């Protein structure tokens, strides 16, 4: 194993914070390449530990490799993407460690979605237009929980919609009959369906207006409290991450340059790129500064 010469920057507060936590997903020296001409090194030697129940924000500008890394963690890479090197380990609640990179066939199918689920970037536009919500939720359950009967599936689907704040009467709706926010909630319901230990959310609220975005974020936080899954929350919206994340990893050109508690990132970021990112959001530099979740007084908290 080759240790990187210079890992991401982090503070002593960060190390103290993570010391007491149990890992759920660990990536070590992960490199991912798109085999095109010329090849693109999209993820370079990334090492990362996600802890049980935490919200880890992944920030960085467009094209820095966020989605590629997420796909690598969940074994969703497709050609021309290839995982060049590195290890990904899932630390199951049962106590068993799963070598994610080595998974094949049924074991891989059982892992994906069951252990680590994903709300895909642009997901709300990827609901199948000619299939009802009932069928789409039902299909996830049919595939992964074949022993479930139809009644049970229907009950579970209704329960899932309720969990994400959508009226179960919507089970018989089609995508075009739902608002963008509702469609995104349905995608979150699908990601919740099997009770995953990790949920990766790739820009889940970016396309939504602020009010709807707030509602969905509140729902995600509530669900996380209740079911205690860990979240990797991907967005270029750093102010939003400061508000909802326990920790934030800042990615630049395929590398994580800094990882720290949201509070440290907000008040004493070390990497010049992190500072530059922070400075590009006027809302963070003005006097409306109390964004950080860990801050004692929150503005606009509801
Ligand atoms: N199918 C592909 N073939 C070749 N290069 C690709 C492919 N998909 C992504 N890339 C490249 O890999 C790099 C990382 O892309 P990725 O989509 O992971 O970035 P991202 O941080 O998720 O960006 P965004 O914020 O726009 O979603 C970029 O340089 C991108 O151009
Ligand atoms: Mg992306």
TrEMBL record:
Compartment(s): Cell membrane
PROSITE patterns: ABC_TRANSPORTER_1 (PS00211), ABC_TRANSPORTER_2 (PS50893)
Domain ABC transporter as annotated: residue spans: 25-278
Record's keyword annotation contains Signal: no
Signal sequence, renumbered to the chain: none
Alphabetized GO MF terms: ATP binding
Primary residence: membrane
InterPro entries: AAA+_ATPase, ABC_Ni/Peptide_Import, ABC_transporter-like_ATP-bd, ABC_transporter-like_CS, Oligopep_ABC_C, P-loop_NTPase
Topology in membrane: Peripheral membrane protein
Keywords of the record: ATP-binding, Cell inner membrane, Cell membrane, Membrane, Nucleotide-binding, Translocase, Transport
Annotated SUPFAM superfamilies: P-loop containing nucleoside triphosphate hydrolases (SSF52540)
PANTHER family with a match to the protein in the record: ATPASE AAA-TYPE CORE DOMAIN-CONTAINING PROTEIN (PTHR43297:SF14), OLIGOPEPTIDE TRANSPORT ATP-BINDING PROTEIN APPD (PTHR43297)
Record family assignment: Belongs to the ABC transporter superfamily.
Designated name of the protein: ABC transporter ATP-binding protein
């Amino acid at each position: 194993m080759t240790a990187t010469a210079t890992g991401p920057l982090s503070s002593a507060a960060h190390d103290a914070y993570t010391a007491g936590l149990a890992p759920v997903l660990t990536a070590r020296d992960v490199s991912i390449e798109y085999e095109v001409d010329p090849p693109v090194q999209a993820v370079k030697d990334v090492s990362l530990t996600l802890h049980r129940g935490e919200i880890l924000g992944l920030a960085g500008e467009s094209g820095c490799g966020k989605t590629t890394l997420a796909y690598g963690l969940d074994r969703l890479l497709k050609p021309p993407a290839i995982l060049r090197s590195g290890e990904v380990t899932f630390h199951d609640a049962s106590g068993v460690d799963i070598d994610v990179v080595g998974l094949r066939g049924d074991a891989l199918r059982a892992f994906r979605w069951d252990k680590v689920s994903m709300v895909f970037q642009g997901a709300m536009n990827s609901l199948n237009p000619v299939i009802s919500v009932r069928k789409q939720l039902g299909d996830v359950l049919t595939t992964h929980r074949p022993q479930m009967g139809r009644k049970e599936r229907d009950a579970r689907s209704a329960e899932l919609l309720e969990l994400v704040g959508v009226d179960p009467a919507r089970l018989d709706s089609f995508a075009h009959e739902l608002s963008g926010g509702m469609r995104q909630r349905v995608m979150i319901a699908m990601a919740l369906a099997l009770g995953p230990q990790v949920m990766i959310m790739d820009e889940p609220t970016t396309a939504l207006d602020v009010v709807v975005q707030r509602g969905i974020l509140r729902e995600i936080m509530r669900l996380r409290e209740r079911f205690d899954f860990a979240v990797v929350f991907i967005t270029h919206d750093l102010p939003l991450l400061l508000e909802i994340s326990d920790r934030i990893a800042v990615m630049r050109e395929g590398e994580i340059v800094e990882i720290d508690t949201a509070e440290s990132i907000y008040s004493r970021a070390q990497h010049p790129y992190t500072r530059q990112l922070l400075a590009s959001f006027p809302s963070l530099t003005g006097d409306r500064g109390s964004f950080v979740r860990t801050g004692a007084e929150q503005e606009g908290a509801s």
